[in-house]
Amino acid sequence: MKESLKSLALALLVLTSIVQTGMLWYSSPSNQGNLPKLQHIPTIGHKDFQKEEIHQLAAPSEIMLHHDGEHRRILPGADHQTLIDRLHHARLENPQTIDPSPAEWKKWLDDETGLELRFRHELPVEVIQAFFQGETEIPELDTVHRIWISGEGDNNQVTVWLISDQTQTVVEGTALLQNYDEMLKLADQAAERPLKAFLNGKEGNFDEEDLKREGAVPRFVYLPPNRAAINRWSYNLEQKRQINVEDMKMILFRNPNNVEKTAISNHIDIYTDVDSSRSLRYNEQNNTMVYTNLLNDTEQELPDPREKLNTIISFMNRHSGWTGNYLLNRVETNQDNGASDFFFQLHVKGLPLYGSEPFPKWEEIRLSAQQGITHYERSLIFFSSRSGQKHPDHLPSGNEVREALKKQNADLSDVRQIYPGYHAVTRENKLELEPVWVVDFYNGKQGFLSVSQTGRDVEWTGAKLKPS
Questions:
Q1: Where would I find the Regulatory protein YycH domain in this sequence (predicted)?
Q2: How do residues 194-227 score in pLDDT, each as one tens digit?
């Protein structure tokens, strides 16, 4: 009986303690206002544009199909992505430096059937390794500009050339590509009309002397014999979409409610968190933002560009940050801190977009990463690619390109590369994406060639003087 009374008394004491604790907690001032709340991360782009792997984000802006002396271009799209994904399943084996003779270059250009992946700029060799399976080390190369793949499909084995135009170096390896014949059939279906090859200003029918004069690694330019049909796109300026800076605060700061805002001019605000490691500079006038995280910047350097790109992919996918089809354009060394800056260029209907009018930086996103993102720079304006209106247009023919270059006191021998793109201009409350040939000169200057609005002439914009 005594034991039962003791148990009952103990239970009453415990119950009384719980009730008193609850009353004390209920009557005390709430501290929740000082605690960070779990925030919903806004998403700003469409899931169709998000990339999962490096080879998708670093895909080349064009693939050339070479067959029986014909050269045809494949631009980014569904078939282009399928070809890149199939290449990603291959393992590069036995890479070694070679010195191809002019006869070998001529054979590749005139006789071999294969694919050439052409990047806009030299990319770190580690990024190129991500296109293949495994961790095969590639000797004697720091950067790669082109990948040539050739073979008859025997046992699905192909020859791979990794080419650096910058250092005039070629590394040869082999790879097994499953269903290589099917890849070539898909490429044939996806490729555009045949183009003419130019070398140092000369058109086609190159002999070994032409290739010898060009140097160790010849650079070919491809242009159409006639005007190439292509669509021009127009968007009403009212159709533009704008990312809310408040959403970017929620994305970029751990506790958006504890961020200080400082106005440094009539149209520029800077947001900083309590420890001042993160800052967001917002320009309301031109709708651009620059985010920096100094804390991440002081962490240990990630030596491999692949690790940095994987960090970027995870970060951007977390908030669906790709508001269009952005592809890696170039990697530059930051002169202030030695870090690698990655620049991603917007592609519309398969073509790279140029021209910041009237929205600065909207065609390019810049990102840097260590253990986390250290720099994020972009426009907060974008357009839905589905909202545009298309109009038939053309790109100038090869002869028109050469004549236009002559008027600029230049010729194809001054040109590092030439490729199709879109140039953005505004007319009558509309944003026009004009098809152009993008002309990159050896000295770093750039110009654009387009058919005039009347259709009778060719117009040149950009660099005006002969490269020196």
A1: 3-445
A2: 999 999 888 888 888 888 777 789 999 999 999 9
pLDDT of residue 329: 97
Condensed to tens digits (0 to 9), the pLDDT of residues 31-72 reads 333 333 445 678 898 888 999 999 999 999 999 999 989 999
Give the angle 220-128-204 at the CA atoms, nearest 5°: 10
Q: Is the confidence at residue 109, as pLDDT, over 50? A: yes
Q: Which two tokens stand for residue 106?
A: 């001529």
Mean pLDDT of the region 19-29: 32
| Cα separation, 385 vs 387, whole angstroms | 6
What global pTM score does this model have? 0.88
Angle at 276 between CA 274 and CA 281, to 5 degrees: 110
What pLDDT does 5 receive? 40
- Concatenated DSSP letters of 240-305: -EE--HHHHHHHH-S-GGG-EEEE-SSSEEEEE-TTSSEEEEEETTTTEEEEEEHHHHTSPP---H
Strand partners, 171: 97, 162
Contacts of 67 (CB under 8 A, 6+ apart): 113, 184, 188
For residue 371 the two structure tokens come to: 């253990």
**Residue 249: closest CA among 371, 376, 345, 341:** 376
Report the pLDDT value the prediction gives residue 3, as an integer from 0 to 100: 44
Return the pLDDT at 153. Answer: 59
Helix %, strand %, coil % of the chain (to 5):
30, 40, 35
43: left (phi over 0), alpha (psi -120 to 50) or beta: beta
The three-state secondary structure class of 196 is strand
DSSP letters spanning 70-115: EEEEE-SSHHHHHHHHHHHT-B-EEEEEE---HHHHHHHHHT--EE
Residue by residue, what is the 3-state secondary structure of 128-190? HHCCCECCCCCCCCCEEEEEEEECCCHHHEEEEEEEECCCCEEEEEEEECCCHHHHHHHHHHH
